[in-house]
Design a protein that fits this description.
This protein has about 300 residues and is an alpha/beta fold. It folds into three domains: about 1-210, Rossmann fold (3-Layer(aba) Sandwich), CATH 3.40.50.360; about 215-260, no CATH class; about 265-310. Helix content is about 40%, strand content about 15%. It is built from nine helices and nine strands. It has helices at about 15-30, 50-55, 70-80, 95-110, 110-125, 155-160, 185-200, 265-290, 290-305; strands at about 1-5, 30-35, 80-90, 140-145, 165-175, 225, 230-235, 240-245, 250-255. It has a five-stranded parallel sheet, sandwiched between helices. The chain is globular and about 65 Å long. It comes from Clostridium beijerinckii (Clostridium MP).
Length: about 300
């Protein structure tokens, strides 16, 4: 059993310390552990070039056009049974270093895409993506904030797990935690998170969420896109659509059972999304061939050019 700890904070910061506290608990449970600090790595932002999608869907494996430390980190993540992220909370949510990792997962790590790509490779004799991408995994997130501005963190984090369909065991925020290292109650909670993850990694198939219950009964998100004119709502994390209600003084999110097949963290939901993207790509490719599109694009290109700093 391998547990990888990833800190998104400064060296020897609260995030490093709490990531290591969770790893201490995992090691006590018999896990082999490793620790990585994101800020030690050279990881470039995703450019949206779609090279990864093209390689997947043409039987060429799973490739990225960017050359940096991401593939090294990805190999570490794929080799682990469980992963712990400890991140500082910036602007209410996850920091840019983590969001870059999340963006680089994108279509490349989407389980639905990799299931389809594996089938394409088998049928064409091409190169299949790394089979470890289709391996079940457990993950926990720890967010450490210096105030109560923390309301985006859990959703930011959960989206990263949604892509490869990893099971989230804990997704915890610690507001007002500048002094967390000497806060015994919070340190104990972080230790419990590490223990929960290690226990889940021993039996991933039967692992389940151990954190505080959220509003969405499916993914435990508290973030929703609300309809101003009705009680209709969409979960910002799993994408399930339903109704927000007040039942016995408490907020409830209720949805029809068929919505589960559309959830963004299910394979059926991912296949629906893949079909939607396929239609979008086909529309875009046809549009780019039209003279009207070429004319309008040329007008924008000629209107103004970007400025760059002098070297």
């Amino acid at each position: 059993m391998k547990i990888l700890g990833i800190s998104g904070g400064r060296k020897d910061s609260n995030n490093d310390a709490m990531c290591k506290e969770a790893l201490i608990a995992a090691k006590e449970m018999g896990a082999e552990i490793e620790f990585v600090r994101l800020l030690d790595l050279d990881i470039k932002p995703c450019t949206g070039c779609t090279a990864c999608v093209n390689s997947l869907m043409t039987g060429k494996g799973n490739m990225c056009a960017l050359k940096d430390d991401f593939d090294w980190l990805l190999d570490k993540m794929l080799d682990a049974d469980g992963i712990i992220f400890a991140n500082p909370i910036f602007c209410k949510g996850a920091p840019s270093a983590f969001l870059t990792i999340r963006d680089r997962f994108g279509p490349r790590m989407d389980r639905g895409n990799n299931v389809v790509a594996t089938k394409i490779a088998e049928e064409t004799g091409g190169k299949a993506p790394d089979p470890r991408i289709l391996k079940d995994k457990v993950v926990s997130y720890i967010g450490i904030g210096g105030s109560d501005w923390v309301t985006e963190f859990q959703c930011d984090s959960g989206i990263q797990a949604l892509t490869p369909m990893w099971k989230v065991i804990n997704n915890e925020v610690f507001p007002w935690s500048t002094a967390i290292i000497v806060d015994d109650e919070k340190v104990s909670k972080v230790h419990e998170i590490g223990k929960n993850l290690a226990e889940a990694a021993k039996d991933i198939e039967n692992a389940s969420y151990k954190g505080e219950e959220g509003v969405c009964p499916h993914c435990h998100s508290r973030n929703f896109f609300l309809d101003r004119e009705s009680t209709h709502a969409v979960c910002c994390l799993c994408g399930i659509e339903g109704e927000v209600k007040i039942v016995e003084g408490r907020v409830r999110f209720e949805f029809p059972e068929e919505q589960l097949s559309h959830a963004h963290d299910t394979l059926s939901g991912k296949f629906i999304h893949a079909d939607d993207i396929k239609k979008t790509v086909e529309t875009t490719m046809n549009l780019r061939k039209s003279e009207e599109y070429k004319k309008r694009l040329e007008n924008y290109k000629n209107f103004i050019t970007s400025i760059k700093p002098e070297k």
